[in-house]
TrEMBL record:
Protein name listed in UniProt: DNA primase
InterPro entries on file: DUF5710
Species of provenance: Salmonella enterica
Pfam families hit by this protein: DUF5710 (PF18974)
Record domain DUF5710: where: 3-45
Length: 139
């Protein structure tokens, strides 16, 4: 699994370091390095519920459901082996590994290092408001 950025408050930096987190001075963020389980870092992962070693940008040309104009449709496809943060009936939170690829939707937050990759594609996603879900997400 690729490195995973975590949001560690300054007051908790020593705890994160003891658990195996590393400091990225260039990006000024703590991260869980490749090969280290994220299980001990859940409290600092609260904003993220999907992790993957890589991802694909899928695009197709279609017509807008609202205005009928032709447009490029863009989505994110996660490979087999991606993980999602789940909660069981007892309230236990755990990472579930998926054996098949999956598209993800209603993306509310994208880490900066991943967002930079979207700048390289023709149809750049933007965070916009949806009346359907009454919230902003990347579309």
């Amino acid at each position: 699994m690729a490195r995973i950025d975590i949001n560690v408050p300054y007051a908790e930096k020593d705890e994160a370091k003891i658990l195996g987190a590393k400091w990225d001075a260039a990006n000024k963020t703590w991260y869980v390095p490749d090969g280290v389980s994220v299980d001990h870092f859940l409290k600092w992962l609260s904003d993220y519920n999907v992790i993957a070693p890589y991802w694909y940008i899928a695009q197709t040309y279609d017509y807008c459901w609202k205005c009928g104009c032709g447009t490029v449709m863009t989505s994110v496809l996660l490979p087999e082996g991606h993980q999602t943060l789940e909660q069981d009936d007892d309230g236990l939170i755990y990472w579930k590994k998926h054996e098949i690829p999956a598209f993800i939707f209603y993306i509310y937050d994208i880490p900066v290092h991943i967002l930079k990759n979207f700048e390289r594609i023709t149809h750049y996603l933007s965070k916009d408001y949806s009346k359907t879900v009454d919230n902003k997400y990347w579309m």
